[in-house]
Structures are given as C-alpha cells and as structure tokens.
Design brief:
By secondary structure, the protein is α+β, with helices and mostly antiparallel strands. Helix content is about 35%, strand content about 25%.
Length: about 300
C-alpha cells in the first residue's frame, strides 16, 4: 500500500510540473476553447441573458482570446440593445454592488481558463458603426469602453430585471467598524488557509494558492478537493475573489465564489480545462456552500 501511495504521489507531482511549465499558445487549446463556448451559452441561458445576447464569434490568437456577443435576434435593434445595456448596468449595480460588465468578463475568464490580460469581450451590433462595448483587463482592473454611446437608446426590450436578483454574483459583508485594511486582509487570508488546510482527498491535502492579487484584492484558488460542494464523488477546485476597501474608520468586504468539478481515478484531473463549471449543473449546491462558507468568514471577522 505504501509503495502504491508513493508511486501515485510521484506520478501526480510529475504531471503537475509538466502542466506548470507548458507553453501558453492559445491556438493549441482551440478545441477546448470552442467547447467552452457552449458552457458560456448555457450560462447566458440559465440567467435569461440569452433573450438579449448571442455568441457571435470566438477569435483565438496565440496570446489572446476574443469573444463577441451580439443581439440574440433582429429584435432588439441596436438602439434597443443600448438602452437595455444601460438598464442592466444600473440595476445590476443596485442589486449586487457589482458591475455587470465585470460579471460577464469574469465568467468568461473562469469558464475558458484564461489569464485576465489575455482575454477581451466585445458586445456589438452587426453594424460596427453603431453601439459597441469592449471589456478588457488593464493595470490591475477590468476596464469598460463604450463606443458611439448616445445619451439614451430608443425602444424597449422585455427582460425581467427581477431575475437579476438570482445571479450568483457573490456577496458582501456588513461594514466592519474600527478595523483597518491590513488587519482585515490578513484575517481573511488566514481564515481560508485554516478552513481548507485539513480538506482534500486521501492522497493529498487541499492546495491553496494566491493568484493575480492586487493591493485591495485577494484571488485564491483551492485545488485537490473532493466532496465539498458536490457530493457525487467528483474532484473540485474553488476560486475565491475578495475585495477589501477602506472607507474611513470602516472596512467594506465584497466576495465572489466560483467552483468547478471533474472526474479522476486516483487523483484530480491534471489540467483545469478538464473541469466543468458548477453553476451550470450544481447551482443550488454551490450557493448553499457559499452561504455557509462566508457566514463562517463573517463570524471569524467579528470575533
């Protein structure tokens, strides 16, 4: 038994090293990336956004992946799309305190397994002279550019704004009084390290790494998990993004939690692209786990 365990550890470590140093020419992953188009389309559908947006093209370059969304039919016309876009931005912020364009872009990154600076998302009409949106990553944040934006679009489009409440857009903690940014950031990092340290599967403990974090943001990825969110025997990895903002004597904390699942015999799938987005199949379980996890975080921060 010990020999088998030793062999599996060596095997798993070897493939982890190979994956770490693999080349990142996105054209080599064109099959995987084009398959993910269906996942993004499914995500639009379960959130009723397919009534407004359709995926037009996926342009795969050596160092960048560009996806373009267009109106899902000839109606809405371009002016109506613009009016609905403005409405969605406003209502989504009011309900979630998250920018709608960031939510679209982050799901694109998550499903397609893309570095933020290697992706762009466009929303446009077929006529390029009309309204167009560009979403991209620059200088540590997700940027939005809007071209040919009028003061107000014309027309209307029947979309249930109430459905925006059902988005898995993360959440926020009540403002923490008499706190400071550095202390809260350290407490949050320590909480997740302690929470996941004894989780994992029989061969390995969970692995927590910090990715693309900036001054006011923690971006954590936890892998080597099993039977956490999904109780169907799958391996999992979780992605947690936490924004911490100092507002005078108070600290405001926002988060976003996403997860993927995949199959394996003795060990997890060796590449992130072998996992599937939980939100498409296990949305209820994902939201329940998120609620439990961040209630524990809140209790931890208020001690």
């Amino acid at each position: 038994m010990n020999k088998i365990r030793y062999f599996l550890i060596l095997f798993f470590t070897f493939w982890s090293i190979i994956s770490l140093f693999s080349q990142s020419d996105f054209r080599q992953d064109s099959t995987f990336l084009r398959e993910k188009v269906e996942d993004y389309r499914a995500w639009l559908t379960i959130n009723q956004l397919d009534e407004l947006f359709a995926i037009d093209t996926l342009n795969i370059l050596s160092n960048k992946v560009i996806m373009t969304l267009i109106p899902s039919s000839n109606n809405p016309v371009c002016d109506t799309l613009q009016a609905t876009w403005s409405l969605l931005k406003r209502e989504f912020w009011l309900q979630h305190q998250v920018h709608f364009h960031e939510h679209l872009f982050e799901k694109f990154l998550f499903q397609f397994e893309l570095p933020a600076d290697s992706a762009e998302l466009f929303i446009s009409c077929k006529d390029d002279s009309n309204f167009k949106v560009r979403i991209f990553f620059q200088d540590g944040k997700i940027e939005l550019e809007e071209y040919n934006l009028k003061s107000m679009g014309n027309g209307s489009f029947s979309i249930l704004i109430d459905s925006l409440q059902n988005f898995n857009a993360g959440g926020r903690l009540q403002k923490l009084e008499r706190s400071n940014f550095e202390t809260i950031t350290q407490q949050i990092q320590r909480f997740f390290e302690e929470y996941y340290q004894n989780r994992g599967f029989w061969l390995r403990k969970a692995l927590l790494i910090t990715k693309q974090s900036f001054y006011n943001e923690l971006n954590l990825e936890i892998s080597h998990l099993k039977n956490e969110v999904v109780q169907d025997g799958y391996f999992e990895y979780h992605n947690i993004k936490v924004n911490i903002l100092q507002e005078g004597p108070e600290v405001k904390v926002n988060w976003k939690f996403q997860g993927k699942y995949g199959s394996g015999i003795f060990s997890p799938p060796r590449q992130p692209k072998d996992y599937k987005d939980m939100e498409l199949t296990y949305r209820e379980e994902l939201e329940e786990y998120e609620y439990y996890l961040f209630r524990r975080l809140e209790d931890h921060l208020h001690k």
